[in-house]
Amino acid sequence: MTRKDFELPMSGPEKVAGWIYVPIHIFALPILLPSAALMLNSVGISLTDIQINFIYYLLGFLFSALIMGRYLKNTFNDFADSVLRTLLNVVVCLVVYYCIAYVVNFVLAFFLPDLINPNTGAVIENTMENSKSMFAVSVLLAPITEEVIFRGVVFGTVRRKNRIAAFVISALIFSVYHLWQFAVIGYSIGTLVLYAIQYIPASIMLAKCMEDSGNLWGPIFMHMTVNYLALLVTKLM
Fold first, then answer.
1. For residue 84, how far is the Cα from the chain centroid?
2. CA–CA gap between residue 109 and residue 222 (Å, rounded)
3. Is the pLDDT of residue 3 over 60?
4. Which of 22, 186, 193, 225 is the most exposed, having the fewest neighbouring CB atoms within 10 Å of its CB?
5. Residue 164 buriedness (CB in 10 A; 0-12 / 13-18 / 19+)
6. pLDDT at residue 112, rounded to an integer
7. Are 221 and 83 in contact (CB under 8 A)?
8. Could you tell me the pTM of the whole model?
9. Are the beta carbons of 155 and 216 closer than 8 angstroms?
10. pLDDT digits over 36-77, tens only?
């Protein structure tokens, strides 16, 4: 079977809205929501970190559903036209991802003997505290939001111009997204760069899944699976 040329069923206004929302989701909301929570706390309304995280991804999901709804519908139609190919690509990309991630973590263990990614540590802590809310966020809201942003908007739009640049830029932004806040609270940049490497296999294989599947729902399902398995392992710990 010959792979179709890469297509992105995203309109011009959706691309503009997407790129406007990228820095809002990565930088603005993580600053504004905790600040708003502090203001609410001063008037007697208390929000936990899990609730703030839920609101954060709910806003991202609403953006995806309301502003990027046409794109999601169009790319779902592409998925419906190639269900078996998409699911096969999801399985293949999952296997390759876990293999690459194992090698990356094995190598990083030489530089970081106590290899506990701070973002992963926060997820584990929140899962132990409220697994139902974390399931809703990690398995339902986050995969759709993050795939629309990082694979749909970032990878998809750059991919139409330059394939290599699309993989590099989307992987870089995806890694920064997960870790930049830890630089603010005192983690060294060098350490965070090493941790950022852990996100490169996922970013590359999610983008590859989108590229080979010809739709965004392939990486969405792959992302959901990765997060679900991670939560399952956490609950079994």
1. 24
2. 26
3. no
4. 186
5. exposed
6. 80
7. no
8. 0.94
9. no
10. 999 999 999 999 999 999 999 999 999 999 999 999 999 999
Distances (CA, A) of 168 to 11, 22, 165, 203: 23, 16, 5, 9
CA neighbor of 219 nearest in space, from 170, 159, 162, 148 = 148
In a domain, 153, yes or no: yes
In a domain, residue 5? The reply is: no
Residue 226 tokens, joined: 């990765």
CA 117 to CA 202: how far, in whole Å?
15
Quick check: 135 and 231 in contact, CB under 8 A?
A: yes
Range of the domain at 57: 12-236
In a domain, 2, yes or no: no
Structure tokens at 126: 């929140």
Classify 112 as helix, strand or coil: coil
Report yes or no on 7 lying in a domain: no
